[in-house]
Amino acid sequence: MAPRGSICGLHLVCLFAIATSFWANASMDVWVTNSNGGDRLSKKASLSPTGSSNGFHIKVDRNKRYQFISGFGAALTNAAAYTLFHSPRRDQIMDDLFGSSGISMSYLRLPMGGTDFQGVQPYTYDDLPSWQHNDFHMDQFSIQKDRDFIIPILKQALKINPSLRIIATPWSAPAWMKTTNSLFGGEFHHGNNYQQAYALYFVKFIQAYQSEGISIDAICLQNEPKHSDNSYPTMKLSWEAERDIIKNYLGPAFNQHSINTKIIIYDHNWDDTGYAGNILSDGGAAQYIRGSAWHCYGGRHDTCGGFHNQHPDKDIYFTECSGGDWAPGFNVVWGVRILSIGQTRNWAKTVMYWNIALDDNHGPKVGVGGCNNCNGVITIHGNGDTTKNTEYYIIGHMSKFVFPEAVRLDTPAFGWDDVHSVAFQNNDGSVAIVVLNPRNDRDQTFYIDIDGQHYQYTLPRESVATFVYRN
Q1: What is the CA 216 to chain-centroid distance, rounded?
Q2: Is residue 158 one of the residues assigned to a domain?
Q3: Domain count of the fold of the chain
């Protein structure tokens, strides 16, 4: 028998060899984008472990986990689909948006009918002739107009990225369901027959899209339900009406038809938590609701963290924000600090921008008013050339590296002008860490601590980096 000391020494040698092999197989790759345009998702030299020192330490804790991620992307408005469909460089643009050689967008927001961005005149799926006053049984329901260019673009996107998910939202119910009898502005009609018909509208939409081979992951009942505008499709829908539609008709209808599409409520700004909170306080409605959706145009960006604490069993979706000439403060720092990092650190499963693509006139906008200076994620010019806007790279720092069903891991929070970070573990075990240096006056050096190793990096001012760690 070998002496006891020899056995212990052998064990130490083995453990050291295992640990050395473990760290030898570890790697950390880096991609950087900065505000001055010098880097745009630029691949940098891979990092090796270093010694530790004083300074910012971004400790990634694999054992402290938060929400699962559904995806990152933007909205396929009618205008966006029209512009993509008719582009002579359509295939290349679609690869840039959804392919692994591009940014692998993983979540799309699909308007159900008209918005303020239209390649054709706005419509819904149950528009009636002037002599017909209602269609409570949805006999005239049809998605035929979506087949012209929206559904072909969706099918192409799904072919490129089969894991792509879709959330669908109407800007307006059919005109005959509204007090104004118009798609533009007004409120949803009171009355059980209208509520029941609207539930059937969603059922038929989901079934019609499923017959095209397109699954709808989630729906919201109404985009910005507190907003009405007489220049484009909008509709006010009170929280009481949204609650009653879900509780009495939509939830039971989904059960009856074995529909697994998630029901998401609110879909409006951070500045009103009462709308969603009131609905969720009703257990009859809450039993059917998966979560709430939020926009960036009012309120504090950390609102959803507090809302999650009040309703920890419900998911958070961030579904809209748009840059443009109207928002001169929008840049890499704002987009990453407030949205990419700010929303996911406050429990968002998705982060989505507004139009995925627009032409060089911020459109098209056939027959509608609304925003006339919003940006698309990409701009498709009349000569066929494209411009990848700031939003493209901001989304890419998440969507290209953080995959559906990744789980958010714990990282520390520092000061407002210090480095900001968020980390996710993918199903393959890789970890993506997104770090922002928001300062406009200096570079910032920090360490990423993971699995007992330290990786040092100096990030230029007003820059974001995604680090991908594999072991």
Answers
A1: 15
A2: yes
A3: 2
CATH number of the domain bearing residue 260: 3.20.20.80
Domain interval for residue 170: 70-404
41 strand-pairing partners: none
The domain boundary, picked from 370, 404, 438, lies at 404
Residue 49: C-alpha distances to residues 128, 237, 409, 410 (Å): 66, 55, 20, 20
Any idea what DSSP says for residue 361? T
Same domain, 102 and 225: yes
CA–CA separation, 66 and 61 (whole Å): 11
CB 456, CB 48: distance < 8 Å = no
CATH number at residue 50: 2.60.40.1180
260: Cβ–Cβ under 8 A, 6 or more apart, which residues? 254
332 and 447 together in one domain: no
Give yes or no: residues 421 and 399 share one domain.
no
CB-hemisphere CA count at 13 Å for 72?
A: 25
C-alpha 248/C-alpha 244 separation (Å) is 6
Strand partners, 407: 68, 425
Domain boundary among 364, 381, 404: 404
What pLDDT tens digit does each residue of the chain (471 aa) get? 445 444 444 454 443 444 444 445 688 999 999 998 889 999 999 999 998 888 899 999 999 999 999 999 999 999 999 999 999 999 999 999 999 999 999 999 999 999 999 999 999 999 999 999 999 999 999 999 999 999 999 999 999 999 999 999 999 999 999 999 999 999 999 899 999 999 999 999 999 999 999 999 999 999 999 999 999 999 999 999 999 999 999 999 999 999 999 999 999 999 999 999 999 999 999 999 999 999 999 999 999 999 999 999 999 999 999 988 877 767 999 999 999 999 999 999 999 999 999 999 999 999 999 999 999 999 999 888 999 999 999 999 999 999 999 999 999 999 999 999 999 999 999 999 999 999 999 999 999 999 999 999 999 999 999 999 998
Check whether residue 208 and residue 300 sit in a common domain.
Answer: yes
Q: Quick check: 137 and 418 in contact, CB under 8 A?
A: no
Cα separation, 414 vs 119, whole angstroms: 45
Query: Does 313 share its domain with 394?
Result: yes
Please indicate, yes or no, whether residues 382 and 450 belong to a single structural domain of this protein.
no
State the amino acid at position 425 in one-letter form.
Answer: Q
Evaluate whether 122 touches 367 at the Cβ level (below 8 Å): yes
